[in-house]
Amino acid sequence: MSGPLLVPDAGLSRALVRTVPDAVTQRLSDLGNIPVAVPVLLLAVVHAARRGNRRGAAAAALAMVLVPALVVPLKEWTGRPGPLEPWASGYYPSGHTATAYVAYVAAALLVRPYTRGRWPLPLAAGLTALTATGLILRGYHWPLDVLASLLMCTPLLLAVHAVIRRGSRRSAPGR
Fold it and tell me: Looking at the 3D structure of the chain, how many domains does it have?
């Protein structure tokens, strides 16, 4: 494996891995597990659909369905090993980061119209950041694996945001 970003990525990873106890980083990493993140999104999807935002709910669910369709082929194509498992492959991009990012941010976008204040998005960003940090510090992923997932999934979330905004404009009084 080679490339201009590999050396700084590996150096950063070496400096960070296992600097925090594994018990802590494992719990943070687990925030990106499907059984943890996806139910949060499903609750938001059901809530939004019941409140009449069926298109937004469908867009958020579709974004989550698209995550493995984007992540898995890239993992197989790159075959990148992990920081602590150079014999294994399939670490780029981070599926846990992608799952956490799409699930938490899409859920926040869905529930934000029904809450006071803007707290859902900072909370979603925090949960995603904690997941990413846990994955890097635990040694499950290189920093660029995590960054790639965030960049790859941003267009999905922008599309969800656009659908939700379009739906809220249509349902606004006087329009």
Answer: 1
